[in-house]
Structures are given as structure tokens and as C-alpha cells.
Amino acid sequence: MNILNRLFVVLNTFVFQLTGGRVGGQMGKQSVLLLHSVGRKSGKDYVTPLSFFRDAENYLVVASNWGRETDPDWFRNLMHAPRTRIQVKGKLLDVQVRQATAEEYPRLWKWVTSQNPQYVQYQQTTSRRIPIVVLTPV
């Protein structure tokens, strides 16, 4: 992640937490949540702002990593510890984490790319299949 992206993430997280999501919870047409994760190696707590989409009661996030060849760290952390918390606006939710199944992936990919066409461009720049993560409140 370059320095400008890193600065944006830190600033957006700070403002989101400070305002309970009233500022930083929406970026243009995209809704933003804060994903809490624990480093799989370090054990350190991380908070990452991510665009999200809804699918019934589930929250969806896309592990695009801006089209890079590697999955984002937050994704790898979640696959190591698939129970976490998200903050949507001022509400903290405990969630169970899983990757979209092979059966549901095409439908969910169509949905998220219709909401954010940038993901199609990211997919074209990488050889990995960009994961869709399903966050189910528990």
C-alpha cells in the first residue's frame, strides 16, 4: 500500500471512530464499515475501513487489494480467525466470516461489480480470483 493510501486509511478510520460513522461511513455512493481483525502473526489488533454491500442480513466486502497479485492482509487475517467485529455507523456487530462459496460467487460478483465497476478493472489486472467475504452477524 502506498503512503497516500495508508494515510487515507488511518485518517478515515480515525474520523469514522470519532464521529460514530457519521463522517467516513459513506464515500461517494459507497457505504463504509470498519473491520476489526487480529494479525495472524503479530496478534496485533487492526481496524480497516472497507466498502461494503448488503446481501440480505449479510455484509459483503471485496478483497481486491487494488488489483494486486496478493490478497490483502486483512483477508488473510480473517481466514486465520474467522470470527470478528465490524462497525457500521455507530453500531458494533459480532460477525462470522467466510468466503463466498463457488455456487454463490457469480451472483455476488455481479452484484458488487454493478455497485462498484472498479472491481472489474482490478480483476483484469491480477491472475488471482478476487475473494468476496461474507460477514454474517451472530
Kindly give the count of domains.
1
Sheet with most strands: 6 strands, antiparallel, barrel
DSSP E strands, number: 7
Order of SSEs: HEEEEHEEHHE
Tell me the CATH topology: Pnp Oxidase, Chain A
**Low-pLDDT segments:** none
Mean pLDDT: 89
Name of the level-1 CATH class: Mainly Beta
Number of helical elements: 4
Can you tell me the overall shape? globular
Give the radius of gyration: 14 Å
How much of the sequence is in beta strands? Answer: 25-35%
The span between the termini is 32 Å
Q: So, the CATH homologous superfamily?
A: Electron Transport, Fmn-binding Protein, Chain A
**Helices and strands: which structural class?**
alpha+beta
* Strands ordered across the widest β-sheet: 2-3-4-7-6-5
Level-2 CATH architecture: Roll
Considering DSSP H and I runs of 4 or more, what fraction of the residues is helical? Answer: 25-40%
Provide a descriptive summary of the structure in words.
This protein is an alpha+beta fold. It has 4 helices and 7 strands, in the order αββββαββααβ. The protein has a single domain, classed as Electron Transport, Fmn-binding Protein, Chain A (Pnp Oxidase, Chain A). It has a 6-stranded antiparallel beta barrel with strand order 2-3-4-7-6-5. β2 and β3 form a beta hairpin. The longest helix is centred in the N-terminal third of the chain and has 17 residues. The chain starts with a helix and ends with a strand. The mean pLDDT is 89.
